[in-house]
Amino acid sequence: MTIRMSVMWTVKMLGLAVVALPLGVELLGLLLRRLRPARTLNEVLFFPSELACVEHIFTSLSPGAVLALHARGVVVRILSDRDYIAISGSQIGVLRKAGICVRCDANSVHMHHKFALVDGRLLITGSLNWTLTAVQSNTENLVVTEEAELLRPFAEEFHRLWERNDPARCLHPKRPKHNSDSRTYDCQRPR
Q1: Which of 56, 70, 113, 114 is an active site residue?
Q2: Which domain, by its residues, includes 94?
Q3: N vs C: which end of the chain shows fewer Cβ within 10 Å?
């Protein structure tokens, strides 16, 4: 299938759910439906950029969508950078207070990845900064796919950085061998 993006550009799609340029607010409905499918979600992993406020993207369409996912028992893990935590409008404190797992990449200047993984089966990626401004005002691209070969390197990167930025590593450089699932040990299910 071929989709016309502009007068000069055409993209061929093979197994991709959506490619949109420019991304408009109306397409956020599709994104939100991917995060709230009829089937049960188990895990959502976010990489907001340093300019993003994860909660802001959902404000006009679905207030508190990230918190609502967490309240439903979905494990939400967010990996960002130290600059993002300090910016005005950052919702990291709110998300952490709710019990959502957040780690900061202390090893890079900016966390510039922009993707989400849903249940290890769905990848949402592109230039989108995950902000309302980006959706309403910028020309962005977004790819949503369930292709395992495309998803795998993103999942590996998330888990690599998640492990590398485990706060316990700062306190205990050698992790006890009895902890078999170090990726989620500090995540909490909502009460």
Answers
A1: 114
A2: 2-171
A3: C
